[in-house]
Amino acid sequence: MAEWRDRGESLVTVYVYVEGGGTQRSTLSACREGFATFLARFVPPGRLPKVIPGGARNAAFDKFTTRVSRKEAGDEVLLLVDSEDPVPAGTRVWAYVIARDHWAQPPGTTDDDLHFMVQCTEAWFLADATTLAAYYGAGFGRAALPANPNVEQVAKADVLDGLQRATAGTKRGKYLKTRDGFDLLARLDPAAVRGRSPYADRFCTTLLRVV
Length: 211
Known about the structure:
- By secondary structure, the chain is of the alpha/beta class.
- The chain has one domain: Rossmann fold (3-Layer(aba) Sandwich).
- The chain is 45% helix and 13% strand.
- The protein contains 9 helices and 5 strands, in the order E-E-H-E-H-E-H-E-H-H-H-H-H-H.
- It has helices spanning 25-40, 57-70, 93-101, 122-127, 129-136, 156-167, 177-187, 190-196, 198-210; strands at 4-7, 10-18, 50-53, 76-82, 114-117.
- Strands 1, 2, 3, 4 and 5 form a 5-stranded mixed sheet that branches.
- Helix 1 runs parallel beside helix 7 (177-187) and helix 8 (190-196) packs across helix 9 (198-210).
- The chain is globular and about 50 Å long.
């Protein structure tokens, strides 16, 4: 659902392009719904942004860039992608992707327009182990999850391995991104995620400001 606001005589909307959803209509829809439901947990009613699932990381960036080049005056366009690797302290977000991915910063954008899930979406799940435990139920091995309180410091491989081991004994079975990922995302407590992921807090703070 798009949020339109009146700034003088201009109608304005907020777009959030997110990595995820692949190329299939069903998974793109699940991605959109998962992120939109998560955002609705902290964005005031009536101010929800328009969530656009971008598919693969590079594809999401390309779609974001296209929208930026066509946006109306005053519109807000944000991009949310996995960082894939640790983000060195003090590194500007555009400097990070320019160096790592050879992306070019679109004209007119600032660091406020680019946001990361560090180091991957699943790190947000670690930040809310209470929701994980409720989702998987009996047999969930919470002790198998990485214990670092700052989930951004946990390597992507360790995040995924921890989820696999923690869920192996549950009725749902081992964590499977295409089956569980967006359903879990929709259930997360934003406060828990923000409390253990500084970049998640940065994204949420920016979004609340622009809506």
